[in-house]
Automatic annotation (TrEMBL):
One of its GO terms (cellular component) is membrane. Keywords: Membrane, Transmembrane, Transmembrane helix. It comes from Triangularia verruculosa. This is Rhodopsin domain-containing protein. InterPro entries: Rhodopsin_dom_fungi, SAT4-like.
């Protein structure tokens, strides 16, 4: 890659009628609405349909949505100041407030991603009954807190010393600011933890004794997670390329699009993992016939591949196993699985529907 000093930039152009500002605002609003719809469906499913099984993971994703709204609002604010227009057509007095809004947008963006990952990991710890998988989840949780939490956020709040130099470099000519490798490294850390996050449950899904259709649904959900990873990778490439673009307010609009898409797609993916009861209610035949007859409700869908593991899973009072090793017993309320975590609630919904039908006048 050529260094910026060896790059010859074309001359800046001016065209006041050419602008992407409306596109930025539309992208920010539409993507956030999509994320909000998924969060609303999640809270309806877990709060009303399942009669309040809300946990910490749900409140974390709600907080992630709040910071996603702040991120999108920051993008809109930058567009109002001039992002999306040619640099020559922007009032110089608006450059500082636009850069300040850019710093806050970065902060809200990182917080939204962090909270989304914490929500997914807390959900894993609720529904994964294999003790080995739970150990891995705790390990990834520690990695996320150290990298995407402590390190990344520390990098942002110390972006420049003093911080005001981040948006007003001319007033602080001797200020220290982190080199661009810090920001590229932070994006790389996010991609790395994303991959760990979505790879973790795949071995568990492989051993599920359910219909192929349901396995494909689960794989599809995690394929959405890797779609988020691909967005992050494209955004990283765009961040690298922005240093070779002279008309930075006009040519780097794609970064604004990808930022809004990434955070809200991550939220939507995290919510898709909890919407099985709602899909079962709207499409009752979709998940029907998946339960092995006579199997225990809490562990039937996480029977391991070996016969000994299956016998452990079928015993009502035995903890689930992986391979031939019995896992450590966990609390009953935590024994939920990818497929069967809501089966008891679906059964109760059917029972209530039958009781209501019996009460109707003949």
């Amino acid at each position: 890659m050529s260094s910026p000093s060896n790059v010859t930039f074309p001359e800046l152009t001016s065209n006041p009628d050419e602008s992407y500002r409306t596109n930025i605002i539309a992208c920010a609003v539409i993507t956030w609405i999509i994320g909000a719809v998924f969060v609303g469906l999640r809270f309806y499913t877990r709060g009303m349909l399942l009669q309040n099984v809300l946990g910490a993971e749900d409140w974390f994703i709600l907080l992630a949505l709040v910071f996603a709204a702040a991120t999108c609002a920051g993008m809109i604010e930058q567009a109002i100041y001039g992002l999306g227009k040619h640099a020559l057509d922007i009032n110089p007095d608006l450059m500082i407030p636009m850069a300040r809004a850019g710093w806050y947008t970065i902060l809200w963006y990182l917080l939204s991603l962090l909270l989304t990952k914490l929500s997914i990991l807390l959900l894993y710890l609720r529904i994964l009954s294999y003790q080995h998988a739970r150990y891995y989840a705790y390990a990834i949780l520690a990695i996320v807190l150290l990298t995407n939490g402590l390190w990344t956020l520390s990098t942002v709040v110390t972006a420049c010393l003093p911080l005001a130099a981040f948006w007003d470099k001319t007033s602080y000519p001797n200020a220290y600011c982190h080199p661009r490798n810090f920001w590229l490294g932070n994006t790389g850390l996010h991609i790395g933890t994303d991959i760990l996050l979505y790879v973790l449950p795949l071995p568990v899904i492989v051993n599920l004794q359910v219909k192929l259709r349901q396995k494909l649904v689960l794989y599809g959900i995690f394929a959405l997670g890797f779609f988020v990873c691909s967005i992050s990778a494209v955004r990283l490439w765009d961040l690298v390329e922005q240093y070779h673009r002279s008309d930075f307010t006009f040519d780097n609009v794609s970064i604004a699009y990808l930022t809004c898409i990434e955070i809200n797609a991550a939220i939507a993916c995290a919510c898709c993992m909890t919407l099985k009861p709602l899909v079962s209610k709207v499409f009752p035949k979709f998940f029907s016939g998946s339960r092995p007859s006579g199997a225990n409700v809490d562990t039937a869908d996480l029977e391991a591949g070996s016969d000994k593991a299956a016998r452990h899973a079928e015993r009502k009072n035995s903890p689930p196993t992986i391979g031939s090793w019995p896992s450590k017993r966990i609390r009953d309320e935590e024994k939920e699985t990818w497929i069967s975590m809501y089966q008891r609630d679906s059964d109760s919904l059917e029972l209530r529907g039958g009781l209501e039908g019996s009460k109707r006048p003949q």
